[in-house]
User: Fold Oligo-1,6-glucosidase from Virgisporangium ochraceum.
Amino acid sequence: MTAEPWWKSAVVYQIYPRSFADSNGDGIGDLPGIIGRLDYLADLGVDVLWLSPVYPSPQDDNGYDISDYQNIDPVFGTLDDFDRLVAEAHRRGLKIVMDLVVNHTSDEHPWFVESRSGKDNPKRDWYWWRPPRDGMKGGDPGAEPTNWRSFFSGSTWEYDGKTDEYYLHLFSRRQPDLNWENPEVRQAVYAMMRWWVDRGVDGFRMDVINMISKDTSLPDGITLAGQALGDGFPYFINGPRIHEFLNEMNRVVFDSPLLTVGEMPGVTLEQAVEFTAPDRREVDMVFQFEHVGLDQGASKWDIRPFRLRDLKASFGRWQAGLADVGWNSLYWNNHDQPRVVSRFGDDSPEHRVHAATMLGTVLHLHRGTPYVYQGEELGMTNVPFDGIEDFRDIESLNYYAEATAAGEDPAAVLVSLRKMGRDNARTPMQWDDSPNAGFTTGTPWLAVNPNYREVNAAPGNPVFDYYKRLIALRHTEPVVAHGDFTMLLPDDEKVYAFTRRLGDVELLVLGNFSGDTVPTGLEGGDLVLANYPADDVDPIVLRPWEARVYRSP
Ligand code: TEU
Ligand code: CA
Assistant:
């Protein structure tokens, strides 16, 4: 048997730097702030820190719009600070994974500034420039080269009067898409990646990487009744050359044992098998989106009730599909998703701690590499945003403007934003019960969640203490990383149950996704982890939001 890759037994912790720890009182988290909290992260026991983007950026999309790939934004610090962070992290056995955002750049990146300067510029073809639709005047409604809808509302095309052409932007108009068809673009990206690897980073989280290959004929997408804009997904998700590009990147850039995870909205299980099969040399694992779409309808703002059976069916299928070839990533939360304890659990004072720890248990005990998003280990919750003025995220602000202009009831739009908006995850880390939760001595860029006096990282947080034990279990019991997976009770509406097996060792994992007391009929072995006191366990009944892990023999 060949040695298993290190990242199979690792737990990754995602840091959203602007909301993690502010060292200089300007209200924005920074690299020295992270360095100051490394002992906290080492104590939690995670193995890898993934940093959301810290590169120079106009911050139109909080750093996912990069204007210089080989530097650090002054708001976050300097390259010296970064080198210090890598050294201090490595000294504690923590690895550093960078966010790689190469589907698009900022409109202020010198490549794009050159590209837009004229049709003859050598970098013109580094982006997607197209003339207005045949016979139409540039800038007129409907003259866009395709009818695609942007992730951040409106068209994916921005008209540039200077050259009478449009450029493509799947996200904000300040995030023009790079043209990966051009080999110079690809080589420039690979060289930049090498530069970070040589600086000591241990891997990459690749932003919307399954969108870098487009159908170059750029067809219109299907429109729903009454809508002007169409769905371009079939033409830019998993495009014709995606596997070729990722394999090329892998061969050119990766020669040490890194962790690579591709963020892939809309990826299917069948595609994920191809992306993560080791012998194809593309990426180690992908972030898929099936489970975070289960409470959404036609759009993410169309919120539907969540049913546990759907979650089990989805996770169960991914576990089976990647059992022999490839690998799963496991996540509830990141900077784009609402807080899981509010979403699939119960954030009331009565149940929050049990719900948060049960959710962590169920997730981490699946086969795959788990990701913890900052504050998840504290049981941080969604935010009671008052009005639209409390939001900062471009996605939420654009959607609110578009929906209310189209006549939707602002109060109804706010209901969706409060439930699904990305700012729920982006409020500052709650370190203690001092003003602004100990995040900053100044005014935070986004207000802290008012519950910071109860929910924070001061010693004694039961969710934190539980996460430590949960993470430690992966490091002491090989079955957690390497065992196989069998789903039990697929139709039960309240109980999540499964086993893991490696050789003679079996784990039985039970989670109650409800505030009721429920019989399961399942028990077996020694209780190795539980979120209720272990001394008064009724073997076959789960209490509200209870989690148990049994080991046998
Ligand atoms: O997100 C990609 C993505 O498609 C969604 O998760 C997105 O957050 C949005 O909610 C769709 O409705 C990645 C980053 O994680 C996100 O923060 C960036 O805004 C986006 O790419 C563009 O770089
Ligand atoms: Ca700061």
Summary: Residues 384-426 form one domain. Residues 57 and 66 are 5 Å apart (CA to CA).
